[in-house]
Design goal:
This protein is α/β, with parallel strands linked by helices. It has 11 helices and 6 strands.
Amino acid sequence: MERILKLKPDLILMADQFEPAYEQLSKIAPAVLIDIWKDRIPIKANFRYIAEIVGKEKEGEEVLARYQERISKFKNQLGDRLLNSEISVLGYYQNQLFPPANWASYFQVFQDIGLPIKPILLRKEEYSNISIEAVGDFEADIMFFTELNNPSKPLYQNPLIQFLKAVKNNRAYIVDGSIWEFYSPIGINLFLDDLSKYLLEIRYSNHNFRLG
């Protein structure tokens, strides 16, 4: 609170998970809660709301237009290379796997691109953890495992992981959760930079799983 006070802000935008601090922060400057988790407002709708709050609707639409141009370019570059394929995403945190909810930020971008998401993930309305024995339910042609500051080696050496078809085919990737969990146009662009490495380029690196 002291650091925010020193910044002397004219306006404070708060993600809704920090609502308990609203009363204190609103004494420093006018504060507005931005819905991220509670009602699961889509990223683009929230961005338009923020643009409206700061009186930058025109500039906001220009940002979204550039996003749409990048999505169109991505789709053209991708072509039909993922025809008849499925993509799955699982989070890894504190030695547990977490299938994401269907409103996860990266799924919103996947759907804009038209990427084929594993159907079971589209039916999930909440984040939840699963046992390693259930990982086969989320098996797909291409798999992404998001992690954030976790020692992943013990989990990924598990035979149930090693024998997933995506792992065998070198189409399973460990990705940075700090990039894949985003909620702004800047974050989307960083995410698309990362995603293009795996879907638009032939990529075999230390981020791939290895058998043995």
